[in-house]
Write a structure and sequence with these properties.
- The chain is an alpha+beta fold.
- It has helices spanning 15-23, 77-86; strands at 3-11, 27-32, 36-41, 54-58, 70-74, 90-97, 102-108, 114-120.
- It has an eight-stranded mixed β-sheet with strand order 2-3-4-1-5-8-7-6, with helices on one face.
- The chain is globular, with a radius of gyration of 15 Å.
- It starts with a strand and ends with a strand.
Length: 121
């Protein structure tokens, strides 16, 4: 199983102010769904390549029970789900396909953080 990206999710009550704040340090909206905005870096990353920096601002999770602390995109969501289920991890939200083009589930890590494990369809 390969990890494609890891994105911190920040819960916000004031997404407009947060977007403006993070714009001042080089992050701009790449995806906007109303309840979530994903910001990306616009500059050069380490080693001279394109920046892969991402940060999501969330007012809520549209279908999930809570705002997850972070999102991890993997190449095989079902394999990740089975691996964590078999290990006895606390699954908070069953694996499912979402209308915005991802397959995902929520799991709690050993320190209590909620992780949104997803893959694009």
């Amino acid at each position: 199983m390969d990890v494609r990206r890891v994105v911190p999710n920040l819960r916000t009550e004031n997404p407009e102010a947060c977007r403006a704040f993070y714009a001042r340090i080089g992050l701009s909206p790449a995806m906007e769904l109303g309840w979530i905005t994903t910001l990306t870096g616009t500059g050069t990353g380490a080693g001279g390549g394109t920046s892969s920096a991402q940060l999501s601002l969330m007012t809520e999770d549209l279908t999930g029970p809570v705002v997850p602390d972070l999102s991890i995109e993997v190449d095989d969501v079902d394999a990740a789900y089975e691996e964590l289920r078999a290990a006895g991890a606390e699954l908070l939200f069953p694996v499912r396909d979402e209308e915005w083009g991802v397959r995902r589930f929520f799991v709690r890590d050993p320190d209590g953080r909620v992780v949104n494990v997803l893959g694009h369809r």
